[in-house]
Write a structure and sequence with these properties.
Blueprint (H helix, E strand, L loop, with lengths): L3 H8 L7 H7 L8 H9 L3 H13 L11 H8 L1 H16 L5 H23 L7 H10 L2 H9 L1 H8 L6 H12 L3 H11 L4 H9 L5 H10 L1 H22 L8 H9 L13 H22 L4
Helix pairs in contact: 1-12, 2-6, 3-5, 4-5, 4-6, 4-17, 6-8, 7-8, 7-15, 7-17, 8-13, 9-12, 10-11, 12-13, 13-15, 14-15, 16-17
Length: 298
């Protein structure tokens, strides 16, 4: 059995995020000079420039003639999509998907990010930055990426347990490794110097007990709301992946199914079945576009 101490040492082997990407992540989409700054920094990183162009050409409303310049691609894709691409590309450079399992985990992570961002955009009263919600969603399972990379044999043993629910996954990881991927993910966020609230969401995203949730809420309402958004996004994505035909079901079947994504501790988010359906449809389409733009399935 691999120990947490051994994993800690292995985390030191993880490369830090490239300097250009770190500076890109610090940009704010609402800044009136955002596009100019993206163009300026992208000129330092040809790989990023190519991925922006690819994303522009994969857009559902892409022009008949292909986009060939970075300037045209940035204008086409838009600030919000660029922000998501920057974040996704940063992690993709460290954890390159090779096996089918890694690619599936990447698709799930992007979908959770897309859903979390959409929920934050809809629930404006919570005052959650949608791009921060995206980052939390993208990184929520970063600990499992580390296990693919640094603890492959242990991961195989976990998968052999044939877990079906998040609770069963955590139990299997604890039995095999003595720690779970959420705790490990928090360590990765700390190594990369990401915001403390992001680190905590990643580390806490499997905390569902009422006692734990109340403790978090009493200490930090913003963290509590961001955590709940990430948890609901995770559960909705799991449903979409496990039941790929779910959105074709009649409303009388679909609405109750979507409502099952609500753990009792998440009901305060107060999203109707119709809104969840809209979020799910958006997530499927946007995730497909992001996956294509990032070249994950190539």
């Amino acid at each position: 059995m691999i120990t947490m101490e051994e994993i800690e040492r292995k985390l030191e082997e993880l490369p830090l995020l490239p300097d250009v990407v770190v500076r890109l992540l610090q940009l704010k989409p609402e800044d009136e000079l955002f596009f100019d700054k993206v163009l300026e920094l992208s000129q330092e990183d040809p790989t990023f420039a190519l991925q922006v162009i690819r994303l522009g050409n994969s857009a559902s409303s892409a022009p008949i003639s292909q986009i060939k310049s970075l300037q045209e691609a940035v204008a086409r894709v838009g600030a919000d999509a660029i922000a998501g691409l920057i974040t996704s590309m940063a992690v993709l450079r460290v954890f390159v998907p090779v096996s089918p399992g890694e690619k599936e985990l990447w698709i799930h992570s992007i979908q959770v990010a897309v859903i979390a961002k959409k929920i934050a955009s809809l629930l404006t009263d919570l005052k959650i930055d949608p791009n921060q919600a995206y980052l939390c969603g993208l990184l929520h399972d970063i600990g499992r990426f580390v296990m693919f990379d640094k603890a492959a044999s242990e991961l195989q043993q976990v998968e052999a347990k044939n877990w079906q629910t998040p609770e069963e996954l955590i139990e299997a990881e604890l039995n095999v490794c003595g720690f779970d991927h959420s705790k490990l993910g928090g360590r990765v966020c700390a190594r990369w110097g990401l915001p403390e609230v992001v680190r905590r969401v990643v580390a806490y995203h499997h905390m569902y007990s009422g006692k734990q949730q109340k403790a978090i809420q009493s200490h930090d309402v913003h963290l509590s709301d961001l955590l709940k958004i990430a948890q609901l996004a995770d559960r909705l994505s799991v449903m979409l992946i496990n039941e790929p035909e779910v959105l074709t079901w009649p409303d009388k079947t679909l609405t109750p199914a979507l409502s099952e994504c609500y753990h009792p501790c998440l009901v305060s988010l107060d999203l109707s079945g119709e809104r969840l359906k809209d979020i799910a449809e958006h997530a499927v389409n946007e995730t497909a576009r992001m996956v294509k733009g990032l070249g994950i399935l190539h």
